[in-house]
Amino acid sequence: MSERKKLTVLAIGGHVGDAELTAGGVLSSHALKGDRIVTLALTAGERGVPAGRDMADYREQKVREAKAFAAELGGEAIVFDIPDGELRDNEEMRYRVCDVIREVKADIIITHFKNSMHKDHMSTHRIVNDARYYAALPTFVREKPAHFASRLYYAENWEDAVDYKPYVYVDFTDEAFELWVKAVSHHWFVTGSKSYEYLEYYKHLKRVRGIEARKRYAETFMIPEENMRLLKSDLL
Protein backbone atom coordinates (compact mmCIF):
# COMPACT_ATOMS: atom_id res chain seq x y z
CA MET A 1 0.00 0.00 0.00
CA SER A 2 1.37 3.43 -0.95
CA GLU A 3 2.02 5.92 1.82
CA ARG A 4 -0.58 8.67 2.20
CA LYS A 5 0.54 11.99 0.75
CA LYS A 6 1.04 14.64 3.43
CA LEU A 7 -1.14 17.69 2.85
CA THR A 8 -0.84 21.35 3.70
CA VAL A 9 -4.07 22.86 5.00
CA LEU A 10 -4.22 26.66 5.02
CA ALA A 11 -7.07 28.14 7.10
CA ILE A 12 -7.65 31.85 6.47
CA GLY A 13 -9.77 34.06 8.71
CA GLY A 14 -10.59 37.73 8.82
CA HIS A 15 -9.53 37.74 12.47
CA VAL A 16 -7.45 35.60 14.79
CA GLY A 17 -9.77 32.88 16.09
CA ASP A 18 -12.18 32.66 13.17
CA ALA A 19 -10.62 29.63 11.49
CA GLU A 20 -9.59 28.10 14.80
CA LEU A 21 -13.18 28.02 16.05
CA THR A 22 -15.01 27.05 12.88
CA ALA A 23 -12.62 24.53 11.33
CA GLY A 24 -10.49 23.62 14.33
CA GLY A 25 -11.76 20.07 14.63
CA VAL A 26 -10.84 19.28 11.04
CA LEU A 27 -7.51 21.08 11.43
CA SER A 28 -6.78 18.99 14.53
CA SER A 29 -7.77 15.83 12.68
CA HIS A 30 -5.40 16.63 9.82
CA ALA A 31 -2.64 17.47 12.29
CA LEU A 32 -3.04 14.07 13.96
CA LYS A 33 -2.69 12.46 10.52
CA GLY A 34 0.64 14.20 10.07
CA ASP A 35 -0.48 16.99 7.76
CA ARG A 36 0.89 20.52 7.94
CA ILE A 37 -1.46 23.13 9.39
CA VAL A 38 -1.06 26.85 8.66
CA THR A 39 -3.43 29.54 9.89
CA LEU A 40 -3.53 33.01 8.37
CA ALA A 41 -5.43 35.88 9.98
CA LEU A 42 -5.76 38.98 7.82
CA THR A 43 -6.26 41.05 10.99
CA ALA A 44 -5.73 40.20 14.64
CA GLY A 45 -9.28 41.08 15.69
CA GLU A 46 -8.08 43.48 18.37
CA ARG A 47 -11.23 45.64 18.39
CA GLY A 48 -12.81 42.99 20.58
CA VAL A 49 -10.51 44.23 23.35
CA PRO A 50 -11.84 43.62 26.88
CA ALA A 51 -13.05 46.72 28.71
CA GLY A 52 -10.22 48.64 30.33
CA ARG A 53 -7.50 46.97 28.26
CA ASP A 54 -5.14 48.67 25.81
CA MET A 55 -5.98 47.70 22.23
CA ALA A 56 -2.35 47.54 21.09
CA ASP A 57 -1.50 45.19 23.97
CA TYR A 58 -4.52 43.06 23.15
CA ARG A 59 -3.38 42.80 19.55
CA GLU A 60 -0.05 41.40 20.73
CA GLN A 61 -1.94 38.95 22.92
CA LYS A 62 -4.08 37.84 19.96
CA VAL A 63 -0.96 37.15 17.90
CA ARG A 64 0.47 35.06 20.75
CA GLU A 65 -2.82 33.16 20.98
CA ALA A 66 -2.77 32.41 17.25
CA LYS A 67 0.74 31.01 17.57
CA ALA A 68 -0.19 28.98 20.65
CA PHE A 69 -3.13 27.38 18.84
CA ALA A 70 -0.97 26.50 15.84
CA ALA A 71 1.79 25.13 18.07
CA GLU A 72 -0.64 22.67 19.70
CA LEU A 73 -1.23 21.28 16.20
CA GLY A 74 2.44 21.34 15.28
CA GLY A 75 1.66 24.06 12.77
CA GLU A 76 2.34 27.69 11.98
CA ALA A 77 0.41 30.93 12.41
CA ILE A 78 0.64 34.06 10.27
CA VAL A 79 -1.07 37.32 11.27
CA PHE A 80 -0.99 40.28 8.91
CA ASP A 81 -0.26 43.69 10.43
CA ILE A 82 -3.58 45.23 9.38
CA PRO A 83 -5.86 47.03 11.86
CA ASP A 84 -9.04 45.17 12.75
CA GLY A 85 -11.99 46.61 10.82
CA GLU A 86 -9.75 48.24 8.22
CA LEU A 87 -9.12 45.32 5.89
CA ARG A 88 -8.99 46.66 2.34
CA ASP A 89 -10.74 44.64 -0.36
CA ASN A 90 -8.14 45.47 -3.01
CA GLU A 91 -5.50 44.00 -5.30
CA GLU A 92 -2.68 44.52 -2.81
CA MET A 93 -4.41 42.20 -0.35
CA ARG A 94 -5.07 39.62 -3.04
CA TYR A 95 -1.39 39.52 -3.92
CA ARG A 96 -0.36 39.26 -0.26
CA VAL A 97 -2.61 36.25 0.24
CA CYS A 98 -1.50 34.83 -3.13
CA ASP A 99 2.09 35.01 -1.88
CA VAL A 100 1.21 33.04 1.28
CA ILE A 101 -0.59 30.35 -0.75
CA ARG A 102 2.49 29.98 -2.95
CA GLU A 103 4.90 30.13 -0.01
CA VAL A 104 3.23 27.35 2.00
CA LYS A 105 2.13 25.38 -1.10
CA ALA A 106 -1.39 24.90 0.21
CA ASP A 107 -3.29 21.82 -0.96
CA ILE A 108 -6.49 22.84 0.83
CA ILE A 109 -7.76 26.31 1.71
CA ILE A 110 -10.50 26.99 4.27
CA THR A 111 -11.99 30.46 4.64
CA HIS A 112 -15.21 32.42 5.25
CA PHE A 113 -18.54 31.96 3.49
CA LYS A 114 -19.63 34.87 1.29
CA ASN A 115 -22.23 36.42 3.62
CA SER A 116 -21.54 37.77 7.08
CA MET A 117 -22.44 40.34 9.71
CA HIS A 118 -18.73 41.33 9.61
CA LYS A 119 -17.36 43.21 6.62
CA ASP A 120 -13.87 41.80 7.29
CA HIS A 121 -15.28 38.30 6.83
CA MET A 122 -16.94 39.16 3.53
CA SER A 123 -13.83 40.94 2.31
CA THR A 124 -11.72 37.92 3.29
CA HIS A 125 -13.99 35.63 1.26
CA ARG A 126 -13.56 37.71 -1.88
CA ILE A 127 -9.83 38.24 -1.33
CA VAL A 128 -9.12 34.54 -0.83
CA ASN A 129 -11.14 33.44 -3.85
CA ASP A 130 -9.19 35.75 -6.14
CA ALA A 131 -5.85 35.10 -4.42
CA ARG A 132 -6.24 31.37 -5.02
CA TYR A 133 -6.76 32.11 -8.72
CA TYR A 134 -3.77 34.45 -8.84
CA ALA A 135 -1.57 31.91 -7.04
CA ALA A 136 -2.33 29.26 -9.66
CA LEU A 137 -1.36 31.29 -12.71
CA PRO A 138 2.32 31.55 -13.71
CA THR A 139 1.52 34.75 -15.60
CA PHE A 140 0.99 36.48 -12.24
CA VAL A 141 4.72 36.87 -11.65
CA ARG A 142 5.65 36.98 -7.99
CA GLU A 143 8.67 35.96 -5.92
CA LYS A 144 7.46 32.36 -5.60
CA PRO A 145 6.38 30.12 -8.50
CA ALA A 146 2.73 29.43 -9.23
CA HIS A 147 0.90 26.90 -7.07
CA PHE A 148 -2.66 25.59 -7.32
CA ALA A 149 -4.58 24.83 -4.12
CA SER A 150 -6.90 22.15 -5.44
CA ARG A 151 -9.59 22.38 -2.75
CA LEU A 152 -11.41 25.41 -1.35
CA TYR A 153 -13.91 25.22 1.51
CA TYR A 154 -16.04 27.78 3.34
CA ALA A 155 -16.42 27.08 7.07
CA GLU A 156 -19.62 27.27 9.11
CA ASN A 157 -19.60 30.38 11.30
CA TRP A 158 -22.54 31.74 13.31
CA GLU A 159 -21.57 35.21 12.09
CA ASP A 160 -21.61 34.08 8.43
CA ALA A 161 -24.94 32.30 8.58
CA VAL A 162 -27.11 34.05 5.94
CA ASP A 163 -27.81 31.56 3.12
CA TYR A 164 -25.22 29.11 4.48
CA LYS A 165 -26.37 25.53 3.85
CA PRO A 166 -24.12 22.63 4.92
CA TYR A 167 -22.85 20.80 1.84
CA VAL A 168 -19.80 18.84 3.01
CA TYR A 169 -19.63 17.06 6.39
CA VAL A 170 -16.16 16.14 7.65
CA ASP A 171 -16.10 13.93 10.74
CA PHE A 172 -13.31 13.58 13.29
CA THR A 173 -12.46 11.58 16.37
CA ASP A 174 -12.68 12.20 20.11
CA GLU A 175 -8.91 12.67 20.08
CA ALA A 176 -9.15 15.43 17.48
CA PHE A 177 -12.02 17.07 19.38
CA GLU A 178 -10.02 17.09 22.62
CA LEU A 179 -6.97 18.50 20.84
CA TRP A 180 -9.13 21.26 19.35
CA VAL A 181 -10.60 22.17 22.76
CA LYS A 182 -7.12 22.37 24.27
CA ALA A 183 -5.75 24.43 21.39
CA VAL A 184 -8.66 26.84 20.98
CA SER A 185 -8.77 27.50 24.74
CA HIS A 186 -5.57 29.54 24.30
CA HIS A 187 -7.82 32.25 22.86
CA TRP A 188 -9.10 34.53 25.61
CA PHE A 189 -12.29 35.49 23.79
CA VAL A 190 -13.22 31.83 23.34
CA THR A 191 -13.24 31.10 27.07
CA GLY A 192 -13.51 34.57 28.64
CA SER A 193 -15.96 36.56 26.54
CA LYS A 194 -19.07 37.75 28.40
CA SER A 195 -20.90 38.66 25.18
CA TYR A 196 -21.08 35.18 23.60
CA GLU A 197 -20.35 31.65 24.79
CA TYR A 198 -18.09 30.75 21.86
CA LEU A 199 -16.64 27.53 23.19
CA GLU A 200 -19.98 26.10 24.28
CA TYR A 201 -21.62 27.02 20.97
CA TYR A 202 -18.96 25.43 18.79
CA LYS A 203 -18.54 22.36 21.01
CA HIS A 204 -22.27 21.67 20.68
CA LEU A 205 -22.36 22.54 16.97
CA LYS A 206 -19.63 19.99 16.24
CA ARG A 207 -21.63 17.36 18.14
CA VAL A 208 -24.89 18.23 16.37
CA ARG A 209 -23.22 18.08 12.96
CA GLY A 210 -21.70 14.77 13.99
CA ILE A 211 -25.12 13.34 14.85
CA GLU A 212 -26.45 14.51 11.48
CA ALA A 213 -23.56 12.68 9.80
CA ARG A 214 -24.09 9.55 11.94
CA LYS A 215 -20.69 10.18 13.47
CA ARG A 216 -19.35 11.42 16.80
CA TYR A 217 -18.21 14.91 15.74
CA ALA A 218 -18.22 16.76 12.45
CA GLU A 219 -17.80 20.20 10.89
CA THR A 220 -19.62 21.35 7.80
CA PHE A 221 -18.45 23.37 4.84
CA MET A 222 -19.73 24.97 1.68
CA ILE A 223 -17.75 24.87 -1.56
CA PRO A 224 -17.61 27.21 -4.58
CA GLU A 225 -20.92 27.06 -6.43
CA GLU A 226 -19.24 26.08 -9.68
CA ASN A 227 -18.01 22.90 -7.98
CA MET A 228 -21.39 21.86 -6.58
CA ARG A 229 -21.93 18.89 -8.86
CA LEU A 230 -21.99 15.16 -8.20
CA LEU A 231 -20.93 12.90 -11.07
CA LYS A 232 -22.54 9.43 -11.17
CA SER A 233 -22.86 6.70 -13.78
CA ASP A 234 -26.33 5.71 -12.58
CA LEU A 235 -28.87 6.65 -9.91
CA LEU A 236 -27.69 4.16 -7.29
Describe the structure in your own words.
The protein has 236 residues and is an alpha/beta fold. It has one domain (8-225): LmbE-like (Rossmann fold, 3-Layer(aba) Sandwich), CATH 3.40.50. It is 40% helix and 17% strand. The chain has helices at residues 18-22, 24-32, 55-72, 91-104, 119-136, 174-184, 188-192, 198-212, and strands at 8-15, 36-43, 76-79, 108-111, 151-155, 168-172, 217-222. A seven-stranded mixed sheet has the order 3-2-1-4-5-7-6. The two termini are 29 Å apart.
Key words describing this protein structure:
Rossmann fold; alpha/beta; 236 residues; 7 strands; 17% strand
Protein topology:
Blueprint: E1 8-15, H1 18-22, H2 24-32, E2 36-43, H3 55-72, E3 76-79, H4 91-104, E4 108-111, H5 119-136, E5 151-155, E6 168-172, H6 174-184, H7 188-192, H8 198-212, E7 217-222
Helix pairs in contact: 2-6, 3-6, 4-5
Task: Give the count of structural domains.
Answer: 1
Distance between the termini: 29 Å
**CATH topology description:** Rossmann fold
- Structural class of the helix and strand makeup? alpha/beta
Could you provide a short overview of the structure?
It is built from 8 helices and 7 strands. The chain has 236 residues and is an alpha/beta fold.
